[in-house]
Amino acid sequence: MPKIYRLFFALLIAATVQVTAAQQGAIVIGSSIPMTGGVSTFGQHSRWGSELAMAEANAAGGVLGRKIEIDFQDNRCNPAEAVKSVTQMIADKKYVAILDGLCSSVAMAIMPLVERAEIPFVVANASATAIAEKSGVGGNKWTFKVNPTDASMLDALVSWLDKEGKAGNIAFLGEDTDFGRAGSAGLEGALKKRNQKLAGVDFYQKGTADFSTVFAKIKSKKPGLLALYAIDADFQNAMRQWYGMGGGVPLTGRVLVDQVPKEIMASGFLDGTTSVQPYDPSIDTPANKAFVEAFTKRNGTAPILVSFEAYETTKILIDAIRRAGNTNPVSIRDALAKTKFPSILGTTLEFDQNNLIHNNAVILGIRGGKVVVLGFSKT
Fold it and tell me: How far out from the chain centre does Cα 70 lie?
């Protein structure tokens, strides 16, 4: 065949491939997050993290010759709302995977839906240990969890506190949800390994206006530390009331140090607090510095742990779609199972037999009215 004809056919094939990709349209991922309600701040950060990962992928040419799109739908941190929206996503059959969930009770409500529909569900922020226990060899082969479980995070924290001689007298206060109860169970399990137990356990209802009674009860027992499991509006409310009552017991657990009201933080009132988190924006790695700069420039505020987890989870999912070579859910699931992804925290991320990733835990403290990184521990 003459060279000019070979060139013509090559150009024709290339053009056909481009047209076909364009006709296929974008690759669409469904995301169920709380965009309104009491934890909408976290939902906003989850969206921002995913959008940054999506923007970076599309700027680099997309995936499989197509752009990535994420359809964000509001679940209000309500399992019933999440089931309704995810059921519709599954029925539409245009979504190649479902992302985040954010709240533990929501993620657990979504799990049976994706298992029946055989579509990957990649959890970015829900921390309940039961999610991993029920995934992979636990039964649900379609659910993958990127952020650490409460059990693995709290084992790292208790190990740290035990070395400092502070694990022997811890009281617990958490919201009466899967999130809070997973926190108490995780602490109990970690302490049991070290022949210790919680000094007391209390729960509150989400949206509680007055914490004074339960705080007074806890203070009367004179614990050495108070492990707090509260988020968003409840956390802010609890912090202000704890401050108003004079505190008197250092805090620990999953204390959201980046959400502490500025005037309380600056006062030094919470000095002595020790928290465990999956992330802190001050972590000194080149990749994290680049992430913080890009996120802050795009959104006008620094990332928090929810932003980070959503960002890395979205990148992991996009990477799996690329490696799968197609948008078949089975292929994407199989690619997720073989993930080896470089975290911006400096580790290589892989899923274990329960489809759970083990990244570094960050031990944070409040010292001199400022948050400092005390150390790291593998989850």
Answer: 17
Cα(210)–Cα(310) distance, integer angstroms: 32
Residue bearing tokens 């649900």: 140
Q: At what angle do helices 104-117 and 178-192 cross, to 10 degrees?
A: 100
Contact 90, 113 (CB under 8 A): yes
Single pTM value for the model? 0.80
Q: Which CATH entry fits the domain spanning 3-148+284-346: 3.30.70.890, 3.10.50.30, 3.40.50.2300, 3.10.310.10? A: 3.40.50.2300
Question: From the CA atom positions of the chain, what is the Rg in Å?
Answer: 22
Ordered per-residue pLDDT tens for the chain, 379 residues: 555 445 444 444 443 333 333 346 999 999 999 999 988 999 999 999 999 999 999 999 999 999 999 999 999 999 999 999 999 999 999 999 999 988 999 999 999 999 999 999 999 999 888 999 999 999 999 999 999 988 898 999 999 999 999 999 999 999 998 889 989 999 999 999 999 999 999 999 999 999 999 999 999 999 999 999 998 889 999 999 999 999 989 999 989 888 899 999 999 999 999 999 889 898 988 999 999 999 999 999 999 999 999 999 999 999 999 999 999 999 999 999 999 999 998 899 999 999 999 998 899 999 999 999 998 887 8
Handedness of CA 48, 53, 56, 61 (dihedral sign): negative
Contact 310, 49 (CB under 8 A): yes
- CATH classification of 151-277+362-378 is 1.10.760.10, yes or no? no
